[in-house]
TrEMBL record:
Stretch forming the signal peptide: none
InterPro entries named among the record's database cross-references: Ald_DH/histidinol_DH, Ald_DH_C, Ald_DH_CS_CYS, Ald_DH_N, Aldehyde_DH_dom
Superkingdom of origin organism: Bacteria
Name the UniProt record assigns to this protein: Aldehyde dehydrogenase family protein
Keyword Oxidoreductase attributed: yes
Sequence ranges assigned to domain Aldehyde dehydrogenase in this UniProt record: 12-483
Entries under PROSITE patterns matching the protein: ALDEHYDE_DEHYDR_CYS
Keywords, comma-separated and alphabetical: Oxidoreductase
Keyword Oxidoreductase set for record: yes
Length: 487
């Protein structure tokens, strides 16, 4: 049980609005008390970041790298405690909290400690200019140089309170920006632990600031502050659109990773066991609370029933329960409100005519009397006009739509408001690559749901704006300046 303070200008500050409870989704017990910042305090945090920017942006890359590297070591040193905390406030299974949350957060700080040392200059070919109104004839050299943007507001998602903030904060700091971090209200305590690691690592006052609140007004203040130059947001498309309106009025930079409804095209020559393993991650990781999940399965008719049968069999081995218990595969969703939302979509699917092949009922039994559990659910015989097919459910629910030929499969995949990550399963790799080129998505997995953590990440359409991950994140958190001189 911990009671947190805001982190503003290098000081731990009492919140004006008191505290609110952070609840364990598995037990419904109180994990800790998070501070409720006022609008004034959020703007003070942005101002502190502004005051710290000039000095931090001029530090040597080696200094920034050393601080990020030390912070990573401190997070790794405290990995056991950080795992317990992450699990308590997210309901993630032990393996997910340790390996997919805390460990990925550490690795991202390590990656961007190296990233701080990457060259920021790109030499351009010289240009020969004749004499004219702009001056005498000459040969002009030029370089394109990446400069820090300034103050970056980082608004993070609730499904991964270590990896997601680390993927924003670390590259932003590596490039010489200062940050105002506003974690998701459901699980902000891990981000305060991250801030303590950065403080211990020697980050100067004001370079990192953390504010929280259960009210939307806190996030709004973190976006509309006149001291903020850029907003990096991960979350729903609806909130992203609202943030975009504010940023558009003042021309602030944006990096948006929004909703997803990943299409998984399973062709009649696919390895069905491989496809089932990939699709099954929807149920296992974060209880389906992951925007990259292959939640919209498009199955060619030749293998449609066989795929349904294999997915049903796979679900039988997915133990739902206490995420701390050995053997648990599917833990709770983040809150009672979200559980109700997911269950309402399952009921909507029934009304729309989908066949509930597995799941569909709230799980019950010993140890499930409390907690926000949703049974992994498989909806078959769906059509692309159903809301359960078109809208992001963000829970352990997979919908399956049949298709006849490749043309129809591609058309169905692209008939979506979203375009984050799609997938193709086929025994013909050349065919899979050909299909991938036609998919309107920021990424395509071919016979895998695995990720290359140097590959650009982001979405088409309503799934986002911009790209990050690897060196792409360093570009995302920088502006390009042209420097020209006479030869």
């Amino acid at each position: 049980m911990r009671t947190e303070k805001l982190f503003i200008g290098g000081e731990w500050v009492e919140p004006h609005g008191g505290h609110y409870e952070v609840v364990d989704p598995a037990s419904e017990e109180i994990v800790g008390l998070a501070p409720e910042a006022s609008r004034v305090q959020v703007h003070e945090a942005a101002a502190a970041a502004r005051d710290a920017f000039d000095a931090w942006s001029r530090t040597k890359p080696e200094e920034r790298a050393a601080i990020l590297d030390r912070a990573a070591d401190i997070m790794a040193r405290d990995a056991d405690a950080n795992t317990v905390l992450a699990q308590a406030e997210t309901g993630a299974t032990t393996g997910t909290a340790r390996g997919m949350q805390v460990a990925v957060g550490v690795s991202r700080f390590k990656r961007y400690a190296r990233g701080a040392m990457e060259p920021v200059e790109q030499a351009l070919p010289p240009q020969i200019n004749e004499a004219g109104p702009m001056g005498r004839a000459g040969v002009f050299g030029a370089v394109a140089v990446r400069r820090p943007v300034g103050v970056v507001t980082c608004i993070t998602s609730y499904n991964n309170p270590w990896a997601n903030p680390a993927g924003k904060v670390a590259p932003a700091l590596a490039m010489g920006n200062t940050v105002l971090v506003k974690p998701a209200p459901q699980d902000p305590l891990s981000v305060y632990a991250m801030a303590r690691a950065l403080e211990e690592a020697g980050v100067p006052p004001g370079v990192v600031n953390v504010v929280t609140g259960s009210a939307p007004a806190v996030g709004a203040a973190a976006v509309d502050s006149p001291d903020v130059d850029m907003v990096s947001f991960t979350g729903s498309t609806a909130v992203g659109q609202a943030i975009g309106e504010v940023c558009g009025k003042s021309l602030k930079r944006q990096l948006m990773e929004l909703g997803g409804k990943g299409a998984a095209l399973v062709l009649d020559d696919a390895d069905l066991d491989s496809a089932v393993m990939g699709i099954g991650t929807t149920f296992a990781f974060y209880s389906g609370q992951i925007c990259t999940a292959p939640t919209r399965v498009l199955a060619q008719r030749g293998i449609y029933e066989q795929l349904i049968e294999k997915l049903t069999g796979y679900l039988a081995f997915m133990k739902v329960g206490d995420p701390r218990a050995k053997g648990t595969v599917v833990g709770p969703v983040i809150s009672a409100a979200h559980r109700d939302r997911v269950e309402s979509y399952i009921e909507l699917g029934r009304k729309e005519g989908a066949r509930v092949v597995a799941g569909g009922e709230r799980p019950s039994g010993p140890g499930l009397e409390r907690g926000f559990y949703v049974a992994p659910t498989l909806l078959a015989d769906c059509t692309n006009d159903m809301r359960v097919v078109r809208e992001e459910i963000f829970g352990p629910v997979v919908v399956v739509v049949p298709f006849d030929d490749e043309e129809e499969g591609v058309a169905l995949a692209n008939d979506s408001d979203y375009g984050l990550l799609d997938y193709v399963w086929s025994g013909d790799v050349a065919r899979a690559f050909r299909i991938a080129a036609r998919l309107r998505a920021g990424g395509v997995g071919i016979n895998t749901v695995g990720r290359n953590m140097e590959a650009p990440f982001g979405g088409f359409k309503k799934s986002g704006v911009g790209r990050d991950v690897g060196s792409y994140a360093l570009h995302a958190y920088s502006e390009t300046q042209a420097v020209v001189w006479p030869g």
